[in-house]
Structures are given as structure tokens and as C-alpha cells.
Amino acid sequence: MTFRDLVLANRSYRRFAQSERISEQTLRELVDLARLTPSAANLQPLRYVLSWTPERNELIFSTLSWAGYLPDWPGPPEGERPAAYIVILNDTEVTKNVGCDHGIAAQTICLGAVEKGYGCCMFGSIDRDALRAHLRIPDRYQILLVIAMGKPIEKVVIEEVGPDGSIKYYRDAQQVHHVPKRRLEDIILDL
């Protein structure tokens, strides 16, 4: 698989084969990839909480907002939920400003997951107070992102933004998830 293929396969999947488990070892391998990425001033302030058990997964699932552009969809039903999660934290005793470290780490984790045949969805829309309480995360750690992961059971297609200019993703009657992307010509400025 080429790098472009990995990027194209790295979509935000929201429906998974929940019964296809992901091991702790696989999650550790993915975090190890993130560990090796660049970090501002090489501070390496990111910390990770891994979840692969149904009980812990349910606690995390309950704190996530699943699809802002699909207001009538509360998230995947039982049987289609993620098999694992990685919670990305900032250790504020190392630094209060992580810059873009967590974005680099999250993308690296997701690309590594795709290479292993999994799909992911990154969440910034999190009930952080509830997640902190559920997982007993000490106050020194700032909750940055949650990555949900599993074997995808939905089809996600990229399409060009239409004439109406809408960038809102949507599902068609066959439950195919469509993601409009701006044209390359529209994002490169000729200055």
C-alpha cells in the first residue's frame, strides 16, 4: 500500500465490527509509532490511556459526540461500536501548550491502524468531565483527543465539494458515508 493509499483509506469511520477485538499489544504498537514522531522542543508531553475491554470501552463511548452533521444519529448501536480507544492526554507538568503534537500523534496512530486493517475516528467533542471521572484521570492531565478504532463496516467515499459549497458529510439511502473535500485548486493560493 502506498502512502497515498493509506491517506485515502484513513477516513473517519463511525461504524465497526464490534466483535472483532483489538489487542492491548496492537494499541501499544500504535502508541509507539506516535512516541517516535516529532514533538515541539522535544518535550514529549503526551500521555495515552488504552482501552480494549468492553467495560472500559462503554465508559468512553458514553462521553463522545458522534456526528455533528448527522443530528438524528446518536452514534453506532451496540454491535457496531469501536473495539478499542486511545485517549490522548497532555501532561501539564511538562508543558501547558502542546502546540500541534497531539494532531501529529493522532494522525500517525490512525495511519498505523489503517495499515493493520483497522479504521479510526478522532474525537475532540468529548464530555471531558465525565471521561475524567470514568477513567479516574488525575487533574494534571489535560484531555486532548479520543481515537475510536475497529474493523470498519461502513463505506466512506470522498467527493468534490458540490456547487452549493457545502462541506457537510452525509449518508445516502444505502448508508454510504460521503465526505466532500475542497478541490486542490481551491486551497493552493497563487500569491
Q: Biggest sheet, open or closed, and with what strands and sense?
A: 4 strands, antiparallel
**CATH 2nd-level architecture of the largest domain:** 3-Layer(aba) Sandwich
Instruction: Indicate the CATH topology of the largest domain.
Output: NADH Oxidase
Instruction: State the total count of DSSP E strands.
Output: 7
For CATH, the homologous superfamily of the largest domain is named as: NADH Oxidase
Tell me the β content: 15-25%
- Number of folding domains? 2
Order of helices and strands: HHEHEHEHEEEEH
The averaged pLDDT comes out at 96
At the first level of CATH, what is the class of the largest domain? Alpha Beta
User: Low-confidence stretches at least 5 residues in length (pLDDT < 50)?
Assistant: none
What is the straight-line distance between the termini? 35 Å
User: Going across the major beta sheet, what is the strand order?
Assistant: 1-2-4-3
Gross morphology is globular
The percent of residues in helical segments reads 25-40%
Structural class: alpha+beta
Q: What is the CA-atom radius of gyration, in angstroms?
A: 17 Å
Number of helices: 6
